[in-house]
Specification:
Keywords: Amino-acid biosynthesis, Cytoplasm, NADP, Oxidoreductase, Proline biosynthesis. The protein folds into two domains: about 5-160, Rossmann fold, CATH 3.40.50.720; about 170-260, Orthogonal Bundle (ProC C-terminal domain-like fold). About 55% of the residues lie in helices and about 15% in strands. It has helices at about 10-20, 35-45, 55-60, 75-80, 100-105, 140-150, 160-170, 170-190, 195-215, 220-225, 230-240, 245-265; strands spanning about 5, 30-35, 50, 65, 90, 110-115, 125-130, 150-155.
Length: about 270
């Protein structure tokens, strides 16, 4: 049985542990690391998974999922470097960090797979994009695909596209939350109670997302189906265009991509 260790038990790390348990993995085949003892006790009590030090995780696990913040990667790599060999599989969930960073810091031949998930992993609806590093094989990708399929959908992309993926789907949920927040405020401005405005908008978002997922129609056609001539929707769309909402989204996502590139370059020793 494959032993999986999650290094960093924040929200994404915890969500992955939860998804793996619901997917049939035994608590005894899972490990996690976490710097705060109270958090270790909380997760062990809730999931029955043991918290360990990085050294024990590296020695016992076949797959090590690195889920720390990008700025915290250096000490983790320092600990892992003397402990891992080609028989281990490293799965990086760290935004912006290329597989070349791990390959440069770890022993020759250690396979690395880069992943960009997103926070809907917390409700088993993640969108995760995976990319193979220099030493990762199709079998390694299959292991990672199976692992992540417990918490959502998985696609494979060339690593050169990962910064764009980070900007689009990695940060994507925040853009939707931001829009929903603004729409709820609009409902309040129009005289609706906050709770009612929230209920109306959230269910509209859920329904619209389901239509997008289950329909073969292009988003433009779905929007046009709501947009009657001289109606309320076309007046709203006119205002969105007048205020440059589309252009602002394009610029925002491009800025997120640029920041992802910066995070990777911050660890570039070349």
């Amino acid at each position: 049985m494959t032993v999986i260790a999650v290094l960093g038990a924040g929200k994404i790390g915890e969500a992955l542990l939860s998804g793996l348990l619901h997917g049939g993995h035994e608590p005894g085949d899972l490990l996690f690391t976490e710097r705060y003892q109270a958090r270790v006790e909380e997760l062990t009590s809730q999931y029955g998974v043991r918290g360990v030090e990085v050294e024990e995780a590296a020695k016992r696990a076949d797959v090590l999922v690195v889920a720390v913040k990008p700025q915290d990667i250096e000490p983790v790599l320092d600990e892992l470097a003397p402990l891992l060999g080609p028989s281990s599989l490293v799965v990086s969930l760290c935004a912006g960090l290329p597989t070349s960073l791990y390959e440069r810091r770890l022993a020759e031949g250690v396979p690395v797979v880069r992943v960009m998930p997103n926070t809907p992993m917390l409700v088993n609806e993640a969108m995760s994009a995976i990319s193979a590093g220099r030493y990762a094989t199709a079998d390694h990708l299959a292991v990672v695909r199976d692992l992540l399929s417990h918490v959502g959908q998985v696609v494979e992309v060339p690593e050169a596209q990962q910064d764009a993926v980070t900007a689009l789907s990695g940060s994507g949920p925040a853009y939707f939350f931001y829009l929903v927040e603004a729409m709820i405020d609009a409902g309040i401005l129009l005289g609706l109670p906050r709770a009612l405005a929230g209920q109306l908008i959230i269910q509209s978002a859920v329904g619209a997302a389901k239509m997008l997922a289950e329909s073969d129609e292009h988003p433009v056609l779905l929007r046009e189906a709501v947009t009657s001539p001289a109606g309320t929707t076309i007046n709203a769309i006119r205002e969105l265009e007048k205020h440059g909402v589309r252009a602002a989204l394009l610029a925002a996502i491009e800025a997120a991509k640029d920041r992802s590139v910066e995070l990777g370059k911050a660890h570039d020793e070349d």
